[in-house]
């Protein structure tokens, strides 16, 4: 389900990846969460690539629309 949502955001003409961000588990920062704009991310296999950092998909906590606040995915 998570990868399907990401692929839809990246490839479907009705979506603009610049409107979305992912919140990842990032130990060491306040609250252990970090928001990353999807416009700065690539998908490769089961990873997001954020500049030179490979982030496994299981670390994604949430995907949300920055403009509307709509949450497309939230990890249980």
Account of the protein in words:
It is a single chain. By secondary structure, the protein is mainly beta. Helix content is 13%, strand content 43%. The protein contains one helix and seven strands; from the N terminus they run αβββββββ. It has one helix at 2-11; strands spanning 20-25, 33-37, 41-44, 47-50, 53-56, 60-65, 71-74. The strands form two sheets. Strands 2-1-6-7 form a four-stranded antiparallel sheet, covered by helices on one side. Strands 3-4-5 form a three-stranded antiparallel sheet, with no helix packed on it. A hairpin with a 7-residue loop joins strand 1 and strand 2. The longest helix has 10 residues, at 2-11. The two termini are 13 Å apart. The model has no long low-confidence stretch (mean pLDDT 94).
Brief descriptors of the model:
76 residues, mainly beta, four-stranded antiparallel beta sheet, three-stranded antiparallel beta sheet, 1 helix, 7 strands, 43% strand, globular
pLDDT < 50 stretches: none
N-end to C-end Cα span = 13 Å
Give the integer mean of the pLDDT values.
Answer: 94
Rg over alpha carbons:
12 Å
Let me know the largest β-sheet: 4 strands, antiparallel
Shape: globular
Main sheet strand line-up: 2-1-6-7
Question: H/E element string?
Answer: HEEEEEEE
Q: Count of DSSP E strands?
A: 7
Number of alpha- plus pi-helical segments: 1
The percentage of residues in β strands lies in 35-45%
Summing up helix and strand content along with how strands pair, one would put the structural category as mainly beta
Helix content: 10-25%
């Amino acid at each position: 389900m998570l990868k399907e949502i990401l692929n839809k955001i990246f490839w479907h003409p009705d979506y603009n990846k610049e409107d979305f961000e992912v919140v990842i588990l990032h130990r060491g920062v306040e609250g252990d969460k970090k928001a990353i704009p999807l416009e700065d991310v690539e998908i490769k296999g089961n990873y997001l690539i954020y500049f030179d950092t490979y982030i496994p998909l299981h670390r994604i906590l949430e995907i949300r629309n920055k403009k509307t606040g709509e949450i497309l995915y939230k990890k249980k």
